[in-house]
Design the sequence.
């Protein structure tokens, strides 16, 4: 029996729909997508047809008006199928959040309906070669040239790079001001001076596309500034705060898939004359996996609901909801390979891919070490205030 999270009828429908897509559309092709490093356009079309790209977008802009919780429910189920595919979907929300959070009415009206309809994918561009964890160290510049902006620089490891039509990026408008000198912009594929680097080759997450964004004297209209000049670092941080529970949910879905494979195998595999699930060494591994997954799910759901409840400062909770489930996903997928033994290491079984894929969860959208920094910094502030 599972924990009862008292989902509404609508939320239950999201879970069932995404599970069905995972089982019918994702699982049958995931090994091939991984092998060929193929972008999952067909599945993106299925998700668009199911209106899932509009899950987090308000109804007035063509979305379903859901919150962080609905988004987490969806990506958890999709991730049960493949986190490469799910990252493609989730990165579009990551790229869309800055517009949702900081866009003017005109910008929202211009971009969000196409995003909600799944006609256009979005990508978020913060990271650079010299600015990963140290996000304020970005070197890309945006110069006010009177009636337009001129952008120069290179963004690195951008999910959906080259595939997306819309890009929300962070660039320095006032370098000497540090983090307060960054601003956010909306870029469109086809903007003059905007091109893409080659597709990166990755350990896992190979269905997801990762490229550089290259800005060479890139000219964009004045109205592409997102939020106020100097607000870019806050745009990035608030975007990440909102997106991180979704990464935790992806961890939950992936870990659940690895547990399901482990139990199934342990019941079938006979050694020493009995199914290996009868051995305590295996039982205890499975018990730990199941318990840690349930704890992760409970944390993600509770944080997502807290965010949707309207709290203001949720950086700490958001970091926790990314940190714990993604560490669990790494451990559970590694243990799944162990339960399956030699077969687990072979490509005929899905757990080797799951283990390769899991590693990125501890790295992207802020390494898990950065999540601990965010949590510790919040604790420091909270206790100082008491
Ligand atoms: N929400 C709102 N404001 C925030 C914020 C948040 N979550 N986090 C920081 N800020 C504000 C701070 O209050 C500070 O404002 P003031 O200048 O007015 O004091 C400003 O932003 C700078 O904050 P801070 O000094 O803490 O910035 P740091 O350079 O030390 O960096 C970390 C903070 C490490 C948390 C940040 O760089 C980070 O999140 N790095 C990881 C980036 C990441 O996740 N990359 C993944 C790739 S993008 S998918």
Sequence:
């Amino acid at each position: 029996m599972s924990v009862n999270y008292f989902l509404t009828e609508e939320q239950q429908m999201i879970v069932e729909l995404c599970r069905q897509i995972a089982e019918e559309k994702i699982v049958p092709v995931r090994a091939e997508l991984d092998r060929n490093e193929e972008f999952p356009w067909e599945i993106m079309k299925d998700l668009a047809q199911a209106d899932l790209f509009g899950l987090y977008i308000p109804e007035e802009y063509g979305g379903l008006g859901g919150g962080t919780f609905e988004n987490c429910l969806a990506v958890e189920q999709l991730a049960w199928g493949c986190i490469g595919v799910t990252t493609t979907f989730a990165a579009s929300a990551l790229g869309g959040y800055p517009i949702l959070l900081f866009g003017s009415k005109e910008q929202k009206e211009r971009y969000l309906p196409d995003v909600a309809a799944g006609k256009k994918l979005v990508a978020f561009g913060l990271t650079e070669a010299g600015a990963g964890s140290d996000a304020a160290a970005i070197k890309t510049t945006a110069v006010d040239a009177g009636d337009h902006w001129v952008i120069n620089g290179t963004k690195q490891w951008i999910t959906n790079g080259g595939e997306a039509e819309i890009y929300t990026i962070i660039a320095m408008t006032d370098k000497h001001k540090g983090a307060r000198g960054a601003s956010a912009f909306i870029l469109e594929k086809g903007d003059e001076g905007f091109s893409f680097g080659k597709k990166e080759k990755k350990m896992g997450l190979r269905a997801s596309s990762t490229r550089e964004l290259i800005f060479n004297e890139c000219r964009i209209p004045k109205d592409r500034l997102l939020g106020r000049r100097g607000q870019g670092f806050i745009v990035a941080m608030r975007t990440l705060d909102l997106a991180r529970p979704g990464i935790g949910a992806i961890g939950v879905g992936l870990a659940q898939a690895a547990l399901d494979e482990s139990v199934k195998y342990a019941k079938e595999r006979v050694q020493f004359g009995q199914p290996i699930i009868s051995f305590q060494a295996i039982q205890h591994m499975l018990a730990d996996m199941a318990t840690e997954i349930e704890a992760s799910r409970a944390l993600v759901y509770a944080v997502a609901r807290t965010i949707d409840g309207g709290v203001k400062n949720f950086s700490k909770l958001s970091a926790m909801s990314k940190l714990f489930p993604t560490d669990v996903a790494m451990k559970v997928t590694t243990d799944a390979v162990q339960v399956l033994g030699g077969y687990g290491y072979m490509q005929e079984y899905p757990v080797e891919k799951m283990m390769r894929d899991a590693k990125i969860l501890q790295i992207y959208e802020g390494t898990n070490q950065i999540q601990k920094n965010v949590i510790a910094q919040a604790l420091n502030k909270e206790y100082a205030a008491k």
Observations:
- The chain has a mean pLDDT of 97.
